[in-house]
């Protein structure tokens, strides 16, 4: 079938990828009309890989001249998804960067597979920051998220669908692999990040991100503790405890839905050894020879 119910919306198979019927019209509009600029930065991620975190970090870095880190910082009052919308949700040039005159062009975001990106993103100087995560943790996070959105399928049913590639923007392996290959071919165009690496070495990756985006962290900023300030502001503990993220809503999704545990390896609490084996087997097959491990 080309259409599968996944709990809160239908997924529709489009050019080999399962896209939400809520996102598809916006994505097609972007493909037809969106003109990327050389100064744009596009965040792309697999759903549930830490997009919310990366949005917070990118927003803070890109806008630090306009919004210094203090008690008036927008992240204390708005969810990262409101500050950096998904282009397929909010296609319209004015809405892509609401109320922001960002010195670095428009940082915007997407879960779009590489093959379906608007041509101008690939042809212009627009940079892509890509984030992915261990596939088993991605699945577990996706399962919880979907339950919160009202999905009724059991963990086992969801798992079967996921392994068949039926998940938001799935098959997740194909999504990751295409950006991985692009990042090897064009490292100046695509920065490939892993959630686990961000967790392990946050300062290193924040500096890498800033450099890639064209707004490197200066020695003066480092001396003044800027790196720790950004990481503290964007940390799971800080963001998940803010009133806006406990109560507000982004589109139709409650903000608290984007924050669960923020741990690496939580899959061990949910998957049986058979499930572990099955997903590892698919991952090994799909990534064979690519040099990529997750
Ligand atoms: P878990 O469900 O494993 O806790 P996305 O933002 O792509 O929807 O991904 C959501 C996952 O990122 C969730 O993982 C969520 O808890 C975690 N997350 C959200 N904000 C985070 C942050 N500031 N730091 C680390 N992880 C975060």
UniProtKB/TrEMBL annotation:
EC numbers, comma separated: 2.8.2.-
GO molecular function: sulfotransferase activity
UniProt cross-references to InterPro entries, sorted A to Z: P-loop_NTPase, Sulfotransferase_dom
Annotated signal peptide: none
Alphabetical keyword list: Transferase
Keyword match Plastid: no
Domain Sulfotransferase residues, every copy: 38-289
PANTHER family per record: SULFOTRANSFERASE SULT
Family named by the database record: Belongs to the sulfotransferase 1 family.
Name of the protein in its database record: Sulfotransferase
């Amino acid at each position: 079938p080309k259409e599968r119910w996944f709990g809160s919306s239908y997924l529709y198979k489009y050019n080999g990828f399962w896209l939400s019927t809520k996102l598809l019209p916006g994505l097609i509009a972007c493909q037809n009309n969106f003109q990327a600029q050389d100064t744009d930065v596009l965040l792309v991620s697999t759903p549930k890989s830490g997009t919310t975190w990366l949005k917070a970090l990118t927003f803070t870095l890109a806008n630090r001249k306009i919004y210094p880190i203090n008690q008036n910082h927008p992240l204390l009052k708005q969810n990262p998804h409101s500050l950096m919308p998904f282009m397929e949700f909010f296609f319209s040039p004015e809405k892509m960067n609401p109320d922001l005159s960002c010195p670095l062009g428009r940082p915007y975001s997407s879960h779009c597979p590489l093959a379906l990106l608007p041509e101008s993103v690939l042809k212009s100087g627009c940079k892509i920051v890509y984030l992915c995560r261990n596939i088993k943790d991605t699945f577990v996070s996706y399962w919880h998220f979907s339950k919160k959105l009202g999905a009724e399928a059991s963990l086992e049913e969801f798992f079967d669908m996921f392994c068949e590639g039926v998940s938001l923007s799935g098959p997740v392996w194909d999504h990751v692999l295409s950006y991985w290959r692009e990042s090897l071919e064009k490292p100046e165009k695509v920065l490939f990040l892993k959630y686990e690496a961000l967790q392990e070495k946050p300062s290193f990756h924040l500096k890498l991100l800033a450099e890639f985006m064209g707004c490197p962290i200066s020695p003066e900023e480092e001396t003044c503790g800027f790196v720790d300030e950004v990481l503290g502001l964007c940390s799971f503990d800080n963001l998940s405890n803010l009133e806006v993220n406990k109560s507000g809503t982004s589109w139709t999704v409650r903000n608290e839905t984007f924050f669960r545990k923020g741990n690496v390896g939580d899959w061990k609490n949910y998957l049986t050894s058979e499930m572990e084996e099955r997903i590892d087997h698919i991952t090994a097959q799909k990534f064979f020879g690519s040099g990529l491990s997750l």
